[in-house]
Amino acid sequence: GLKPACVDACPMRALDFGTYGEMSQKYGNEKELYPLPDPGFFDPGMIIKPHRNAVRAKNENAKVADKKEI
Predict the structure, then answer these.
(1) Structure confidence at residue 6 (pLDDT)
(2) d(Cα 34, Cα 44) in Å, to the nearest integer?
(3) What span, in angstroms and rounded, lies between the C-alpha atoms of 14 and 36?
(4) What are phi and psi of 42, to 5 degrees?
(5) Contact between 18 and 53 (Cβ < 8 Å)
(6) How many CA atoms lie within 13 A of 54 on its CB side?
(7) Which tens digit of pLDDT belongs to each residue from 11-63?
């Protein structure tokens, strides 16, 4: 099958598409990602590969300027 148009059109190749199992095997299954809400409140149906500095941002008490964006 074809990938969604947004995946093929993404200029940074930041999007991918597949089954949940394929994506978690490829990118990991990290569910607790700063500054997103606690995954205990919802069951995310997506895989996010955190940026290499995501842990540093959490440890340095980085702040979200506009909480409406998350």
Answers:
(1) 96
(2) 14
(3) 18
(4) -155, 165
(5) no
(6) 12
(7) 999 999 999 899 999 998 887 777 777 878 777 778 888 877 777 666 676 67
Q: What is the token pair recorded at 21? A: 């199992």
- Measured CA to CA, the distance from residue 44 to residue 7 in angstroms comes to 19
Closest listed residue to residue 45, CA positions, set 20, 66, 9, 17 = 20
How many angstroms separate the CA atoms of 43 and 46, rounded?
9
What is the Cα–Cα distance from 57 to 8, expressed in whole angstroms? 30
Distance of CA 25 to the CA centre of its chain: 14
Radius of gyration of the chain (CA): 14
